[in-house]
């Protein structure tokens, strides 16, 4: 079951962040509006569960440089098997690929050095034991600490 709103700790993280990244499956325009109003800067893409109104406002792939680190954001990357190789080939010009879709937290590095991050979901944990999201420190061209945050199910 999907939540009607983000949990309070996630809103606190939004308020503290310089940039908020969302890898799709917004499901409602209201969430996009709320994040656009509250985040200092928002980078987002649409997901497979997002209808026409969201697809009209969001790209399939977003690319942005933050603190000298090149990011791409996309919803779907395909099966877990071979993901690093496929994504390194598809995104040779970025340092970090943030993706969604599976709701399964993911943090790996391809042979090329591409870092792949999936924050999971703070509202739809599927078969995961907790609700999750990530925070990342970026400065001077370096991806610093990547922290996976957990919220227990209600």
Automatic annotation (TrEMBL):
Report the SUPFAM superfamilies cross-referenced here: Metallo-dependent phosphatases
**Entries under InterPro entries matching the protein:** Calcineurin-like_PHP_lpxH (IPR024654), Metallo-depent_PP-like (IPR029052), Phosphodiesterase_MJ0936/Vps29 (IPR000979)
Which Enzyme Commission numbers does its entry carry?
3.1.4.-
Q: Which UniProt keywords apply?
A: Metal-binding
GO molecular-function annotation terms? hydrolase activity; metal ion binding
Q: Which cofactor(s) are needed, names only?
A: a divalent metal cation
- In this chain the Calcineurin-like phosphoesterase domain maps to 5-140
Q: Provide the family line.
A: Belongs to the metallophosphoesterase superfamily. YfcE family.
Cited NCBIfam families:
yfcE (TIGR00040)
- What is the protein's given name? Phosphoesterase
């Amino acid at each position: 079951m999907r939540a009607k709103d983000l949990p309070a700790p996630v809103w606190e993280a939004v308020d503290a962040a310089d940039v908020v990244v969302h890898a799709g499956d917004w499901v409602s325009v209201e969430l996009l509006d709320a994040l656009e109003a509250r985040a200092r800067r928002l980078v987002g893409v649409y997901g497979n569960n997002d209808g026409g109104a969201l697809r009209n406002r969001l790209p399939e792939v977003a690319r942005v440089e933050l603190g000298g680190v090149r990011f791409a954001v996309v919803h779907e990357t395909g099966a877990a098997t071979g993901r690093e190789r496929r994504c390194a080939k598809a995104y040779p010009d970025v340092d970090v690929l943030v993706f969604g879709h599976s709701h399964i937290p993911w943090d790996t590095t391809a042979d090329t050095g591409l870092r792949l991050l999936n924050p999971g979901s703070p509202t739809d944990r599927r078969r995961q034991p907790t609700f999750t999201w990530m925070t990342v420190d970026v400065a001077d061209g370096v991806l610093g600490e990547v922290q996976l945050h957990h919220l227990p199910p209600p």
